Amino acid sequence: MEITFLGTSGCVPTETRNLSSLIISHLNSPYLFDCGEGTQRQMRIAGINFMKIDHIFLTHLHADHFLGLGGMIQSMDFMERTRELNIYGPRGTQETINTLLSAGTFILDHLTIKIHEITPGPVMESENHAVTCAKTLHTANSIAYLFEEKPHRKFLKQKALDLGVPEGRLFSDLQQGKSVTVKGKTITADQVLDNPIMGRKIIYTGDTKPCNNVINLAQDADVLIHDGTFSNDEKELIEEAAHSTNTQAAEIAVKANVKKLFLTHISQRYPKPEDLQKILDDARKIFPETYIAEDLMKVQVEKHW
Amino acid sequence: MEITFLGTSGCVPTETRNLSSLIISHLNSPYLFDCGEGTQRQMRIAGINFMKIDHIFLTHLHADHFLGLGGMIQSMDFMERTRELNIYGPRGTQETINTLLSAGTFILDHLTIKIHEITPGPVMESENHAVTCAKTLHTANSIAYLFEEKPHRKFLKQKALDLGVPEGRLFSDLQQGKSVTVKGKTITADQVLDNPIMGRKIIYTGDTKPCNNVINLAQDADVLIHDGTFSNDEKELIEEAAHSTNTQAAEIAVKANVKKLFLTHISQRYPKPEDLQKILDDARKIFPETYIAEDLMKVQVEKHW
Fold first, then answer.
1. Which of A21, A121, A210, B115 has its CB 3.0 to 4.6 Å from that of A248, i.e. a possible disulfide?
2. Looking at residue A103, which CATH number applies to its domain?
3. What does the pLDDT average to over A209-238?
4. What burial class does residue B97 get, using C-beta atoms within 10 Å of its C-beta: 0-12 exposed, 13-18 middle, 19+ buried?
5. Could you list the residue range(s) of the whole structural domain that residue A35 is in?
6. Which among B12, B61, B71 is the nearest to A104, CB-wise?
């Protein structure tokens, strides 16, 4: 499981930071979270094939988080993609995408887009992972996403052999959670699978003030990617902006007991390395495993088993 | 007068080329031509302050030429710009901009935008330059732009002195084209100004098939920036695409008697340096002063006087 930061700037792009977007890659599939202007090009630079994306998750409907969808969808269509593209976002997402795609003379020729306007709770599930969301404190219906690998139960081979199960197809059935019958005796998966080990968890807040829902959603996560728009030296700025400071994000990381914190959505106010170093140092006094996300940075999330 | 290429890719951005956009800088003012997705960031990388742009010219309403307006306008507004922004484009420009800005939850707080839906002929004029446009062959109302410095007439100081004009304010009046009266005698500007020297001319075609209007508009220009989407080796591609090849653009440059030709809107089909070299070599066989535009390339256009 790998995170690629595609854009880490807040509101306005800078020389070194594009607008909000990141990819979580899992089992060769890229999942896109937010899609600020310029995201399709960032993917090309990062070597990620945007034609492989089937699921896009929007945290809220401010333009610096979705404007890149217009170009990317048109490129997919231009390159004659027909496979369905799923876009998840809060109420208003359907209208926003419709509006964006109706600007100018564009008509979709190939691509089918399915919009999912979601509410807090489960968002999607596959065989190997699940995505859940929770309400944040930024806009009326802004959301944070949890991308979670499903728990794993190790197969206890010796125990299965001791119970008389022969190696082969029955092993595979048991590993998949099915029961099997050997010489008239039923053996359940529970008997030969170890206690479940929690899968990897990545949480991405989008823009938000410090928020209890994030603490709950992020509990024990491997990686928390949190709004870190402002420095704690300029705390007065966040009153009206509904963003977080570096130290507020670090406090959330402590409360949620996560392993690592990445600050993103960095304001253009901090172009100087020394300002960023102070932002990092101040956050690390509270939560030592803090990092500042940079464009095109890749983060490996290690397996739990 | 300087050209900065901000985006030189056709339709889809690549690792090295952003979508269509270029700046002509003249007397400290930047004039923006087309504004593909990611243009505001390209300007930051190029060190051009987008807050200084007062005039934007769109060649047509395909998204790869205008999608960047949404983000740039929002950034200008976010940074509390109030000075009027003029956007020129074909019929449909007003509706396109309205649609683009109505996606999501955005509301303009500060900026005033004036849209000018233009037809072939004069577009705008200032004290020092004029912009003219002509119909091209790409969409129903696609246009090419000519950016032209006004002609210059050298002031013949000795002739003015010989006619009895004293140095000082009257010299300045004559230089500005006014008549002056010295000891009851009227002296006109025509008497003391040399024959006009043509100002610098830059023409940008946007997307187009080879087109007579471009030949006429570009006559004797310093720089012709022409659609060069395809290589002449793939001539069959242009039949349906309404673009030009490298050699077609070079033929236009010959017919228009321009000084330099820059090919732009390069297809993603040519990522390899050797392919680009062949595109360049083939065009130079027809028009030796051909160049391929690259992102962030700056071109100085030398003074005529």
1. A210
2. 3.60.15.10
3. 93
4. buried
5. 2-152+196-300
6. B61
